[in-house]
Amino acid sequence: MFALFTTVPAVLVGGGLWYLSSLAPTCSTDIADRLTAPDGQFDLVVFSRRCGQTGPNTQAALIPAGDDLPEDATSFASIGVAADLEPRWDGFGNIELALPEGAEIYRQDETVAGIAVIYR
After folding, report:
1. Are the C-beta atoms of residues 71 and 77 closer than 8 Å to each other?
2. What are the distances in angstroms from CA 114 to CA 42, 81, 85?
3. Contact at 8 Å (CB) between 89 and 38?
4. Beta bridge partners of 118
5. Whole-angstrom Cα distance, residue 32 to residue 38?
6. Which of 34, 70, 116, 120 allows an S-S link to 98, with CB 3.0 to 4.6 Å?
7. H or E stretch covering 21
């Protein structure tokens, strides 16, 4: 009888959480460019992420070389349009990105992991 009083609420709570999680928007990520640093330590990844009804966006993140892009990757550059950022590593090991004129900028860090970011 005691099991009935603990199992039924647990099933109801679990079912409720499962249902609520199905209402949350799912995210998808599309990688546009991936460039390994000249020293082989990092990958520069340019991507867009869609979660539910979000608008177009383009982001850049630095991740360990060869790793998959995590779903919660923190970008160091993020804009509110779909764009080709023309990413590249310059001869000094700096990151270069081209931000389109007039784009809404959400994030524009000057350095990431001790590496300078140059915006063209």
Report:
1. no
2. 12, 27, 21
3. yes
4. 96
5. 19
6. 120
7. helix 2-23
Q: How confident is the model at residue 115 (pLDDT cuts 50, 70, 90)?
A: very high
Q: What is the mean pLDDT of residues 6-12?
A: 66
92-118 burial, b if ≥16 CB within 10 A, otherwise e?
eeebbbebeeeeeeeeeeeebeebebe
Q: In degrees, to the nearest 5, what angle opens at C-alpha 77 toward C-alphas 84 and 114?
A: 120
Q: For 64-105, what is each residue's pLDDT tens digit?
A: 999 999 988 999 999 999 999 999 999 999 999 999 999 999
Tokens of 74: 């923190």
DSSP 72: T
Q: Which two tokens stand for residue 100?
A: 């389109």
Q: Which tokens go with 118?
A: 């140059």
